[in-house]
Amino acid sequence: MINHLIIGNSAAAIGGVEGIRRSDRENPITLIAEEPYPCYSRPLISYYLEGKVAENEMGYRGADFYAANRVEARLGVRAQRIDPDRQEVILETGEVLPYDRLLIATGSRPVTPPIKGIEKKGVFFFNKLDYARALRQYVSPGSRCAVIGGGLTGLKAAEALVHLGARVLVTDISSCLLSSILDPAGAEIVKRHLAGSGIGFQLGVPVVELAGDSRVEGLIFADGGSKAVDAVIVATGVRPNLEVVSDTGVDVGQGIIVDNQLQTNLPGIFAAGDVSEGWDIVLQQRRVIANLPNAYRQGETAGRNMAGEKVVYPGGVALNSVSFFGLAIATAGISNSEDAGVEAVRYLKEAEKIYRRLNFREGRLVGYICIGEISRVGILTALIKSRTPLADKRQGLLKGDFGLVDLPEEVRLSWRWERGELTWRF
Amino acid sequence: MSKRVICKEDVCIGCHLCEINCITAHSSYPHDIWKAFKLQKERPIARVLVEEKGETSFALSCRQCREPECVKSCLTGALRIDPVSGVVVLAQERCIGCWTCIVSCPYGAIRPSGGKRMVAAKCDLCQGIREVPACVAGCPNDALELADGREE
Ligand SMILES: Cc1cc2nc3c(=O)[nH]c(=O)nc-3n(C[C@H](O)[C@H](O)[C@H](O)COP(=O)(O)OP(=O)(O)OC[C@H]3O[C@@H](n4cnc5c(N)ncnc54)[C@H](O)[C@@H]3O)c2cc1C
Ligand code: SF4
Ligand code: SF4
């Protein structure tokens, strides 16, 4: 008998279960999760907050998932540490669970920025259901809410709060929204759209302190300015949850270092998802890629290898797709770099809020920004992942209604889409 | 093992009838083209898409991949492989229109539905609507074929 043990209960962990069960229907799987809920779709918490999705509609998988996959789910208990020598995981309750194959899928948590008074009442992070629940209690129509961090998570929170009737201010150190994925031209469109939907902005000045006694009452900015608020949402990035591997000998960089089979340096121990530092196909280096498709794919690959298959994950790519008040934004790979060597071609229709930027390097597509028109951009993602040479077929890909027909003939035919053979896709 | 619709590129003349038949099949009047186009308020999009350039034309629909990027990427679990038929199916009521599947599908075979509640839409092989997919049944040139298996 082989004991499969999984720490975590989100995209990477679920991928792990499904990966194991592709070939191993027999051996037991135990799953340990800190959050006391069956697996839910984390990105849905903003939809829950605004009331678009009910709590019982948030499941990432159906209610019978654990039973159908014969998983013993231990929900609401934290794994304290791993003992690789004895092949055991020690829970916070003191209970000890043995494993033969271990998947660490502990994900990430919000960074706490250096802001005075951040522990005050009325300050929330926004990465799990409990925060969304608490916010729903705390915020009412007319509440003044400040979101610190104009990234994807912060802006999703801001959108939901507007739908709840709150008055929302978004602040960021950067003068650009979504600065990790957009360039100034793209960020400007998004900002104009969000401003038109009722969100206020204070960009380019850091918040240094949260005013108020025990409860937050205001923001204080580095330039001395201030702003009265009732609630603050902090969304300034995430970092991997690495506690379980401290002092274990598991190699760690920014995240847990894994090879292309998602295995760590220690035999039998795998890691996947936001906690791992895996391969980035575009950058051709290891790094933490914190998005859900990558988490699932890594988890699934880890699971298959835990079950004894030998499968390789060619690597992930930074990939984001998000809509705010109906405006679709998709980015992938090297999206906003101004580096020499990256050649950008652009198409901008400012009034219509349409922007497309394709980045090429050495005749290959390495990244894109698509705003407003996202139909079929998966073709672009595939061109990036497969590192297909594109020579001078660039302009066709800029059109909003581009298609396979716009690819170079030899690429389109090697795609062999009519038979569905994916020779180009690793 | 699922079937899927394939197109013979050298036979397809780009007449777009497959799109018309697909729209009809996914409307409230699946057997009446006129009603589907004249009476239906929110017209569904065609899940098959004809691409053309010069003499080249082909109708593209979902490959029903065995390792579907769309399913693996779906943020909510709305997409899955139907364990019985093998068809890649979308539970529209669970879809939030985040378009992560769209940025993941290598063929551009899943697209926004249009309409008030924008969700993803893709070929379902007319499961539960008709025996042979409407696009295949209606192609005047026999360019479309319901083929067996997936050779990925
Ligand atoms: C509001 C929001 C919106 C998002 N939107 C998108 C989006 O549009 N597209 C996208 O691709 N990604 C999005 N993401 C990111 C996406 O949710 C993550 O990349 C993905 O959830 C990572 O999955 P994971 O399984 O690696 O880890 P996580 O989802 O972080 O889950 C890890 C789990 O492990 C548990 N855990 C941690 N430590 C322990 C321990 N010691 N013992 C037991 N359990 C433990 C945690 O409680 C948690 O439940 C969003 C995230 C948020 C918060
Ligand atoms: S929508 Fe695209 S990725 Fe999904 S099964 Fe169809 S062809 Fe494959
Ligand atoms: S648009 Fe719908 S089907 Fe596509 S990934 Fe998002 S939730 Fe899933």
Secondary-structure topology with pairs:
The complex is a heterodimer of chains A (426) and B (152).
Chain A: E1 4-7, H1 11-23, E2 29-33, H2 45-49, H3 65-68, E3 71-75, E4 79-83, E5 88-91, E6 96-98, E7 101-104, E8 108-110, E9 123-125, H4 129-138, E10 144-148, H5 152-163, E11 167-172, H6 184-196, E12 200-203, E13 207-211, E14 218-221, E15 226-228, E16 231-234, E17 238-240, E18 256-257, E19 269-271, E20 276-280, E21 285-287, H7 292-306, E22 319-324, E23 327-333, E24 343-349, E25 354-361, E26 364-371, H8 378-386, H9 395-398, H10 409-415
Parallel strand pairs in A: 1-2, 1-7, 2-3, 7-19, 9-16, 10-11, 10-16, 11-12, 18-20
Antiparallel strand pairs in A: 4-5, 5-6, 8-17, 13-14, 14-15, 20-21, 22-23, 23-26, 24-25, 25-26
Chain B: E1 4-7, H1 17-25, H2 33-38, E2 49-53, E3 56-60, H3 69-73, E4 79-81, E5 88-90, E6 111-112, E7 120-121, H4 134-138, E8 144-147
Antiparallel strand pairs in B: 1-8, 2-3, 4-5, 6-7
The complex binds flavin-adenine dinucleotide and iron/sulfur cluster (2 copies).
Flavin-adenine dinucleotide sits between chains A (7-13, 32-35, 42-43, 45-46, 78-79, 105-108, 126-127, 152-153, 156, 241, 244, 273-275, 290-293, 295, 322) and B (75, 98, 100).
Tell the overall outline of chain A.
globular
* Mean pLDDT across residues of chain A: 95
Extended strand count of chain B: 8
Side-by-side strand order of the widest sheet of chain A:
3-2-1-7-19
